[in-house]
């Protein structure tokens, strides 16, 4: 008889502050939420604006709270006015980096090719990458969600080895659910997250698919988090608005 090894994926509750919080606000918020999150079983992480990283890291010192960068550029260094490199981020001590968020894709024109370059560079620098994907309402209504997500994932992971892919976190964020209060139903969220896991098994192998963590994002709240995170292929959440409040504690413990 062949025994199946069950890999327990550590749950991850990640906040994405977006363009909110000054360094002083970051410091006071992390100091306030730190004791509330101390006994969370899940991994806890806040993606913060680059200028907040050092203040947030200092406030989080000695706690289970991790700090990541919301954005970076894929070149090592050079004449890229206003951009921030992975070398700069890594030097602060931040480990996680976010890429492929729909706001970066739609407002700042980041292409699938860019996301792939960012992922390869994050791996090269030994960072912990989180890659977002998600469909618009038009794509969902046209019945093209799964194909769209598949194309985004295949493109993002081009040239990434199985060993590196297993350490990437994928966040599925339907664009129509971001900041709208319109959360995907648990069935909709599970359907896409389950498809992503099957796709990873197809691109790589079953072991990589079992290991990779897939999060849901889009209007996650203290009220709906537990039901979403109870789905078999949802390993936690990427949380925007609700990560700016201390009630994020409830999401981290859901
Ligand atoms: P909201 O949780 O505010 O809908 O934002 C989701 C998101 O974009 C997180 O990256």
Question: Please, could you describe this protein's structure?
Answer:
It is a single chain. The protein has helices spanning 23-37, 53-60, 86-92, 102-106, 112-124, 137-141, 145-156, 162-165, 186-203, 206-211, 225-229, 248-252, and strands at 12-16, 43-48, 65-69, 96-99, 128-133, 169-172, 213-217, 236-239. It has 254 residues and is of the alpha/beta class. The protein has one domain (12-252): TIM Barrel (Alpha-Beta Barrel), CATH 3.20.20. Strands 1-2-3-4-5-6-7-8 form an eight-stranded parallel β-barrel, surrounded by five helices. The protein binds 1,3-dihydroxyacetonephosphate.
Give a short overview.
The chain is α/β, with parallel strands linked by helices and 254 residues long. It has a single domain, classed as TIM Barrel (Alpha-Beta Barrel).
Small molecules in complex: 1,3-dihydroxyacetonephosphate
The radius of gyration computed from the alpha-carbon positions, rounded to a whole number of angstroms, is: 17 Å
CATH superfamily: Aldolase class I
Distance between the termini: 36 Å
- What is the C-level CATH assignment? Alpha Beta
Portion of residues within helices: 40-55%
CATH names the topology as TIM Barrel
| Contiguous helical run count | 12
Assign the CATH architecture.
Alpha-Beta Barrel
Strand count, sense and barrel status of the largest sheet are: 8 strands, parallel, barrel
Cα shape: globular
Number of domains: 1
Question: Could you give the order of strands across the largest sheet?
Answer: 1-2-3-4-5-6-7-8
Low-confidence stretches: none
Mean pLDDT: 96
Structural class designation? alpha/beta
Order of helices and strands: EHEHEHEHHEHHHEHHEHEH
> What is the total tally of β strands?
8
Strand content: 15-25%
